[in-house]
Amino acid sequence: MGAIKTLLTAALLLGALVGSARAEPVKIRIAWTVPVLNWPSILLEKQDLALHLGKSYVLEPTHYAGTPQMITALATGELEIGNLAYSSFALAIENAGMTDLKVIADEFQDGVEGHYSDEFMVRAESPIHTVEDLKGKVIVTNAGGSAIDIAMRAMLREHGIDDNRDVNFVEAPFPTMKAMLLDKKVDLLPGVLPFSVDPELRKSARTLFVQKQAVGTTQMIIWAARAGFLEQHRAAMVDFLEDALRIVHFYVDPANQAAVTEIAAKVAKQPAERFAGWLFTPKDYYRDRDLVPNLVALQANMDLQRKLGFLNTRIDVAQQTDLSLVKEAAQRLK
Q: Could you say which of 32, 117, 147, 285 would form a disulfide bridge with 210 (CB–CB 3.0 to 4.6 Å)?
């Protein structure tokens, strides 16, 4: 009996090893919206640094027009990692009922000292010189309740302007806003990267205020995934995050600026000079090189979202966060 038991045990172990060897890499579909500015859009441009790619995981960066589509895809299991603004992350929990959604990594932050903060711009010759001068004017926003929209409304209220009655908001995609401002269809636009570095806009407009003045530090974009997927595929996710960190370190290294701008030009289909001198430098948004988000800022941002009436309940960021995977990945690189 002992010999038979030993043989059975050996057979089971061999079967497990064979099964493991034949296991398919985990598919990780990760969302992005803005080319180059969102990490997922350029991760595969440095596949030479992705040591686990094709082994424990395969990566499918997927373009989405906006976060509402990402929320739907996360809810239906068609997306593993969402690239969400803090505002859409909160709505995914409250409106879509994804209480298992977890913040797993940083994408970028606004208002960090020494780095870029979104500019809210008027025409150069505009008579608007203070926030109070915006009363009765037309403001363009990308979407009501977005992170940018919330910053504008917070600034208006701080200066005694009712954002629902004293100004008119119109919605438009970021690429169309410059023409709307210069054609005098709107009086204020949010200048977000990379659109705010447009030479024509810089020549024809001026900054009225920046986002940091309105709301302080903002954890603008985070990576979010559902707890069940993280639990089921933890090993593959840590491998992916290790590779992502290695690639991020390449992009933020000043020594690689020339190569980085060439990659950006290829991905965005724009001249390299459009990115030279600012991309992944202090003139860009702050990007944590270890992909660790600012949870204090994130909580404050979502509390403001509730204060402005875009959320009904307070969301506890600590309960919606799992940074253990990205921290484990970072330890591997030390």
A: 117
Q: At what angle do helices 86-94 and 67-76 cross, to 10 degrees?
A: 40
Report the CATH fold assignment for 24-111+218-332: D-Maltodextrin-Binding Protein; domain 2 (3.40.190)
d(CA 31, CA 42): 12
d(CA 264, CA 42): 8
The DSSP result for 242-288, as a single string, is: HHHHHHHHHHH-GGGHHHHHHHHHHHHTS-GGGTTTTTTSTTS-B--
The topology (CATH level 3) of 119-215 is D-Maltodextrin-Binding Protein; domain 2 (3.40.190)
Whether the Cβ atoms of residue 209 and residue 120 lie closer than 8 Å to each other: yes
Backbone angles phi, psi at 31, to 5 degrees: -90, 155
Mean pLDDT, consecutive 10-residue stretches, the chain (334 aa), reads 52 49 87 95 98 98 90 96 95 95 98 97 98 98 90 96 96 95 98 94 97 96 98 98 98 96 95 93 96 98 94 96 98 94
Token pair of 55 as six digits: 């082994």
128 closest CA partner among 73, 193, 200, 206: 206
pLDDT at res. 200: 96
Is 124 exposed, middle or buried, given 0-12, 13-18 or 19+ CB atoms closer than 10 A? exposed
Q: How many CB atoms lie within 10 A of CB 309?
A: 11
Which tokens sit at 282?
Answer: 């202090």
Token output for 57: 């995981």
DSSP assignments along 138-196, one per residue: EEEESSTTSHHHHHHHHHHHHTT--TTTTSEEEE--HHHHHHHHHTTS-SBEEE-TTGG
pLDDT at 95: 93
What are the backbone dihedrals phi and psi of residue 205, each rounded to the nearest 5 degrees, phi first? -135, 165
| Residue 19 confidence (pLDDT) | 47
For residue 194, cis peptide bond before it (omega within 30 degrees of 0) = yes
